[in-house]
Design a protein that fits this description.
It is a single chain. By secondary structure, the protein is of the alpha/beta class. Among the domains are: 4-10 and 23-179, Rossmann fold, CATH 3.40.50; 420-516, GMP Synthetase, Chain A, domain 3 (2-Layer Sandwich), CATH 3.30.300.30. Helices cover 31% and strands 26% of the residues. It has 16 helices and 27 strands. The chain has a nine-stranded mixed β-sheet, with helices on both faces. The protein starts with a helix and ends with a helix. The relative contact order is 0.09.
């Protein structure tokens, strides 16, 4: 299914319903469809056609989704760029993608100038999203005004054709452009989201960045489902609380750090959040104390833990709402508490296995790498055949995430393959040690890394954010010693004010290793 049909279907079923609310503006589904038509018409006049890349670099707004659908109408490929990228990173991504057009906020122009000077992107191929046409650039509003309101372009791309190139976070090495097809999105939505219904109205508060697969997938799901999306430029706890109350939000997608910041906000109790029915979380490991607290503080909400990555076009496993209901006998509650540390079970529309280094399925309880297969998976990495060959083997996408599966089919992460610590021949999961550290009452945040060690090969180092200065290195090592095998406990603990994280809340362990992993 071509993704342009999501908007066509919704605008036909609920044309007058608000599609996007942003910065005091409101656009109905009919408005959205017309704006997309106008933009596609203008882009076509500028020469954009099938296969051309159309890039964006801006904080969240309704414009990002308009650009996606306009590009899809023309059978072009949408390339959302991380607006937090540095000049060198941006040049790398633009050099790889070679876009025909770049839509950007005025504040990012200084970063773009290097690409203009190096001939990667002509000045006349830049569209300013929030400023007038200057220096040969185009203005977004002018493109909308000059285009045809009726749909003039009807895409020919099929499900297996690429519609998005989304760059991986780039925490190590050069960024890779993940090629996602129309099926990457439609296969998930058709299996897991109900289409627009004139009798069912829902409001989704969306703050996850659109350059991330979770943000884009959530936005397209909302369009297909006829949901109203309240868009936040970037996450800010107090503004989130205000918007959730003002618009009576029913749905929200949050990463664990966002959820924690909301509950820790001194004004959290001042807001009526009773309308929230579904809170989806993911993109980074959820500390058990945080989700336990959230279940109490959001009593009306159903929680869903969604696990996936860019290469799998978002969710491949899910921990459903019923596993967040901590009721029953002591044995049943204990089992559910254990499951809260999992990423749930595979979705029905995708195949998931845990395999050894030689690609064989590992026994229940054994750690291996998560692999996935299905029409939702990426097509490969843009113009990187070697990297594609490493990631896709015999039709399976190798995720790089290590995990084990219990007898009930629930999957528990054990860390990234590159982050696993090898001490004296023993394999140590950083996540296992991190969960133990986070169970200490005086620990607010924690990350575990391996550092070079002459005797053991690698030693376990914990990087900890304290909730109270009462926590000492000796206390935390002893806390781990009581709960873990002796070889797993940290040999050292360093204290920091905060952990470095990317926009989706994932700890940047490369940064920690550079800072604290000094050899020997």
């Amino acid at each position: 299914m071509n993704t342009t049909e999501f908007l066509i279907i919704a605008s036909a079923i609920v044309p007058e319903r608000p599609a996007f609310i942003f910065d005091g503006q409101q656009f109905s589904f009919a408005d959205l469809h017309q704006r997309v038509n106008r933009l596609a018409s203008s882009l076509s006049q500028l020469g954009v056609g099938p296969g051309d890349r159309v890039a964006t670099m801006q904080v969240n707004s309704h414009q990002s989704i308009e650009i996606y659908f306009a590009a899809a109408q023309l059978d072009a490929v949408y390339v959302p760029l991380n607006f937090r990228a540095k000049a060198e990173e941006l040049q790398q991504m633009l050099s790889i993608a070679q876009p025909s057009m770049l839509f950007t906020g005025e504040r990012y122009l200084p970063l773009v100038h290097g690409s203009i000077e190096n001939g990667i992107l002509p000045s006349q191929r830049i569209v300013l999203l929030d400023g007038p046409a200057t220096n040969g650039h185009h203005a977004y509003d002018a493109l909308l005004q000059s285009g045809e309101a009726e749909q003039m372009h009807f895409p020919e791309a099929e499900g297996e054709d690429t519609t998005v190139i989304m760059f991986t976070a780039g925490t190590t090495g050069l960024p890779k452009g993940v090629m996602l097809t129309h099926d990457s999105f439609s296969s998930y939505l058709l299996s897991n989201v109900s289409p627009a219904d004139p009798d069912l109205e829902e409001t989704n508060l969306l703050t996850v960045p659109f350059y991330h697969i979770a943000g884009l997938q959530a936005a397209l799901a909302a369009v297909y489902g006829g949901r109203t999306v309240v868009v936040m430029r970037q996450f800010e706890p107090l503004e989130w609380l205000k918007l959730a109350q003002r618009h009576r939000a029913n749905r929200a997608m949050l990463v664990p750090t966002m959820l924690k910041h909301l509950m820790d906000h001194p004004q959290f109790g001042d807001f009526d959040l009773s309308s929230l029915d579904v809170i989806t979380y993911g993109a980074a490991p959820m500390p058990l104390p945080v989700i336990q607290q959230a279940i109490i503080k959001f009593p009306n909400a159903r929680f869903i833990n969604a696990f996936g990555q860019t290469e799998t076009a978002s969710t491949i496993t899910m921990l459903p709402p019923e596993d967040h209901v901590l009721e029953g006998s002591p044995e049943e509650v204990a089992k559910k508490l254990k499951r809260l540390t999992s990423i749930g079970v595979p979705l029905e529309d995708v195949e998931v296995m845990i395999v050894s280094e030689d690609g064989e399925t590992v026994p229940t309880g054994n750690v291996g790498e998560i692999v996935a297969r299905g029409s939702r998976m990426m097509k490969g990495y843009w113009r990187q055949e070697a990297a594609t060959g490493d990631a896709i083997r015999s039709g399976w996408v190798y995720t790089g995430d290590l995990a084990y599966q219990d007898e009930d089919g629930y999957i528990y992460l054990a860390g990234r393959a590159k982050d696993f610590i090898k001490r004296g021949g023993e394999m140590i999961s950083p996540e296992e040690v991190e969960q133990v550290l986070l169970s200490h009452p005086d620990v607010d945040d924690a990350a575990v890394i391996g550092v070079p060690d002459l005797e053991w090969g690698e030693a376990v180092t914990a990087v900890v954010v304290r909730r109270s200065p009462a926590a000492t290195e000796a206390d935390l090592i002893e806390h781990c010693h009581q709960r873990l095998s002796s070889f797993k406990r940290p040999s050292s603990v360093v204290f920091v004010d905060e952990l470095p994280r990317n926009a989706m809340g994932k700890v940047l362990k490369r940064d920690l290793r550079e800072q604290f992993g000094k050899p020997y």
